[in-house]
From TrEMBL:
<dbReference type="InterPro" id="IPR006034">
    <property type="entry name" value="Asparaginase/glutaminase-like"/>
</dbReference>
<dbReference type="InterPro" id="IPR040919">
    <property type="entry name" value="Asparaginase_C"/>
</dbReference>
<dbReference type="Pfam" id="PF17763">
    <property type="entry name" value="Asparaginase_C"/>
</dbReference>
<dbReference type="InterPro" id="IPR027473">
    <property type="entry name" value="L-asparaginase_C"/>
</dbReference>
<keyword id="KW-0378">Hydrolase</keyword>
<dbReference type="InterPro" id="IPR027475">
    <property type="entry name" value="Asparaginase/glutaminase_AS2"/>
</dbReference>
<dbReference type="InterPro" id="IPR020827">
    <property type="entry name" value="Asparaginase/glutaminase_AS1"/>
</dbReference>
<dbReference type="InterPro" id="IPR037152">
    <property type="entry name" value="L-asparaginase_N_sf"/>
</dbReference>
<feature type="domain" description="L-asparaginase N-terminal">
    <location>
        <begin position="7"/>
        <end position="192"/>
    </location>
</feature>
<dbReference type="InterPro" id="IPR036152">
    <property type="entry name" value="Asp/glu_Ase-like_sf"/>
</dbReference>
<comment type="similarity">
    <text>Belongs to the asparaginase 1 family.</text>
</comment>
<feature type="active site">
    <location>
        <position position="95"/>
    </location>
</feature>
<dbReference type="Pfam" id="PF00710">
    <property type="entry name" value="Asparaginase"/>
</dbReference>
<dbReference type="InterPro" id="IPR027474">
    <property type="entry name" value="L-asparaginase_N"/>
</dbReference>
<feature type="active site">
    <location>
        <position position="16"/>
    </location>
</feature>
<dbReference type="InterPro" id="IPR004550">
    <property type="entry name" value="AsnASE_II"/>
</dbReference>
<protein>
    <submittedName>
        <fullName>Asparaginase</fullName>
    </submittedName>
</protein>
Amino acid sequence: MQNKAEKIVLLGTGGTIAGTSAQAGDNVGYTAGQLSVGHLIAAVPALGHVPLEAEQVAQLDSKDMSHAVWQALAQRVAAHLARPDVAGVVITHGTDTLEETAWFLHRALAPQKPVVLTCAMRPASSLQPDGPQNLLDAVTVAQSAVAQGVLCVAQGQVLAAEDVRKVHGYRIDAFSAGDAGPVARVEEGQLIALRPWPQAQALGLAAIAQDVAQWPRVGLVCSHAGAEPWAVEAAVAAGLQGLVVEGTGNGTVHHGLEAALHKAQSAGLRVLRASRCVAGGVVGAPTGALPSAGGLTPAKARVELLLQLLAKAST
Ligand code: ASP
């Protein structure tokens, strides 16, 4: 089902999809975030028939994503979704932090209309860029009257914000939804739903409205062989309010690090325990264990903790 009469808003933020290299065959030595979202639309003739509006919210390599851009992006998405003439929003984004932005937007806004992040692993100047097809597929999902929530579209797969994770640093099939699998597929302009659309409880724009310079500082430490408490101690000394520990296996933490985290938690630092495994998250919560991040990746757990601290501060 499609809302053909309704508008799709395309918000550009940069990334490899908007990247160019000096040599067309160079898929590595390029600069991300060079072409405007208008250029990306012009490269897909089929989009000429779609009522589109384009806006450049940022122009960066998503490895450099900032909280200020997240705040501006969430505000622009919310403003467009509130318009009755808008069916959905597409965001062009770098692949590196796409899953973090997706979780940020999903938890902040929990939109009833589709908000679709799309991307590319090859720059626009590539001999065979993957961006144009991903963009077209993303618009197909955004036009759907049934799709909802924050989604990622790449390589014909529609992945929920909760599940999406970058799992490959080079190949064009760089994203996975792990055990959950995709929520839908796009094939030749047809959206094929596979399971229910993701839902969430929106924290709301008020929670993220305060000056980003005042946002709580939340860090990430990794548990590994030979881990020592210095990273936790440095986080406490630097005045962080939250810390995610990227645990081994089912969220297990090296004893040197764990003792320091318990001590920091007793002193008021919020801690979440995630897993560094490529799939599976943290299952269960043994007595005395640090709070679990459940199925969230460490990077998304950091976003979650940041948002929880922001929501608390705004009430
Ligand atoms: N570094 C790039 C970015 O995240 C990678 C990409 O888009 O594939 O913006």
